[in-house]
Amino acid sequence: MLDNKGFDIWAEEYDEFVDKNSSGYPFEGYYQLLNRIYDVVDIKKNSKILDIGFGTGVLTNRLYNDGACIYGIDFSQKMTDIAGEKMPGARFIRWDFNLGLPPELDSEKFDYIISTYAIHHLDDYKKVQFIKKLKKSLAEKGKIVIGDIAFGNRQQLESCRNKNKDIWDKDEIYLVSEEITEALAKEGINSEYIQISSCAGMLEIL
Ligand SMILES: C[S@@+](CC[C@H](N)C(=O)[O-])C[C@H]1O[C@@H](n2cnc3c(N)ncnc32)[C@H](O)[C@@H]1O
Predict the structure, then answer these.
(1) Residue 193 belongs to a domain with what CATH number?
(2) Residue 76: CB within 6 Å of ligand 1?
(3) Is the C-beta atom of 29 inside 6 A of ligand 1?
C-alpha cells in the first residue's frame, strides 16, 4: 500500500498510467465508474462537494468546471499541487483520512461527499466508522457516493485475485458489497451497490 510519498512519486504519471491501464485489474472500468458517479451527482448552483482522496482530480475537475464548490482532502502534497493547479478556486486540504476529517471542515455541510479509488486504504471496520462520520457532514438530502475496486461477493474477489496473482496488491482492502452493505446495515446505514466492471463498483449511501 502506498504512503503519501509513494503517491507523490506516482502523481505526475497518474493520469497517463490510468489511461494506459484501464483494461484489467486494477483499473478496469475506471472511466465508466467516474462517469457513473458524475451522473449521480446533480449539480445545482454552488453545490458543495467534498472529494476524499481526490488525487489529480480527474472526476473533481469536471464537477468544478460545472460550477460546484469543491473541497477535498488528500495526504499527497504532489497530488494536491496538481489538482490545485487545475482547480484554483477549490479548497484542498492535506490530510490523512485515517484521522477522520480535518477540523477545518467541522462546520461544513456537503451536498455530496464522493471518493474514488481511495477508500481501500481503510480496513472494513474503519470504512464503516468513517462513513458514519461523513454522514454527519452531509447537508439535508446530501449523499455519499463511493467508487472503488470492488466486488459483489468474496468469490468474485478471489477469482480476480487468482487471475492477477502477479500484480495483486495484498495490502489494499477492497470493497465486497455483500459484506460492507451488511456491516453498514448493522449501524443503521442503508446502501446500494452497483457493479461497474469486473473489479470496480459504486456504493451509494442512502
Ligand atoms: C489511486 S488515487 C485515486 C485518485 C482519484 N480519486 C481518482 O479516482 O483517480 C488514491 C488517492 O488517495 C489518496 N490517499 C490514499 N490514502 C490516503 C489517506 N490515508 N489519506 C488521504 N489521502 C489518501 C492518495 O494520495 C491518492 O491521491
Answers:
(1) 3.40.50.150
(2) yes
(3) no
